[in-house]
Design a protein that fits this description.
Number of helices: 8
Strand content: under 5%
Number of strands: 0
Order of helices and strands: HHHHHHHH
Helix content: 55-70%
Structural class: mainly alpha
Length: 188
């Protein structure tokens, strides 16, 4: 009996002759075919939605309270500023690295130690990061001035005048990075 069921299922159920292609006058445009497919899919989705409702009607669910689900604050906290890198271990080099990071994240300005937006010039960033240690600040400024003079010649008279001579902070920040590397090489 099992063999007869197997052979019954194996028999082809569809037509065995190919359907003829429609004549040129019977062909539908692409838009018409897409509309027909969309209508057929809509019918199938509606049937699936009804079937789902019937299958799940017996399931008793309690209403969901969003206060139980949402645990994040309604107003997001501002992102924490990135931590300054810690490439160097010597005091002057780390100070210059922090000053570079301050200018990179807070902005660069000219003509003042700091502006109302929190941007700093080279000296302002060094002074801010030195935290009142005037000796450390003087050593850092000396290394920066030496790095500037090595790169641009000996006629630069001060760090503030070099900073203010530029239209953007790209070169002053680069000089702080070079000065940090120089201070580390000198063990400062």
């Amino acid at each position: 009996m099992a063999a007869s069921l197997h052979t019954a299922r194996a028999a082809p159920t569809g037509p065995t002759t190919p359907t003829p292609a429609p004549a040129d006058g019977d062909r539908l445009s692409l838009d018409a075919r897409l509309a027909a497919v969309e209508a057929a899919m809509t019918v199938k989705l509606d049937e699936a939605a009804v079937a789902h409702e019937v299958r799940t009607a017996h399931i008793d669910t309690a209403p969901l309270d969003l206060a139980d689900v949402i645990t994040a604050p309604l107003t997001p906290a501002p992102p924490a500023p990135p931590a300054p890198p810690q490439t160097y271990t010597t005091p002057v080099a780390t100070l210059l690295e922090r000053a570079h990071h301050r200018m990179e994240t807070g902005g660069w300005c000219a003509g003042a130690l700091a502006d109302e937006d929190g941007a700093h010039c080279m000296l302002g960033a060094i002074r801010k990061e030195a935290g009142g240690d005037r000796g450390l600040e003087a050593d850092a400024v000396s290394v920066v001035l030496d790095a500037i003079r090595r790169r641009f010649g000996g006629d630069v008279d001060s760090v503030p005048s070099f900073n203010d001579a530029h239209g953007t902070g790209r070169i002053p920040m680069r000089m702080l990075g070079e000065a940090a590397s120089m201070a580390d090489a000198r063990g400062l």
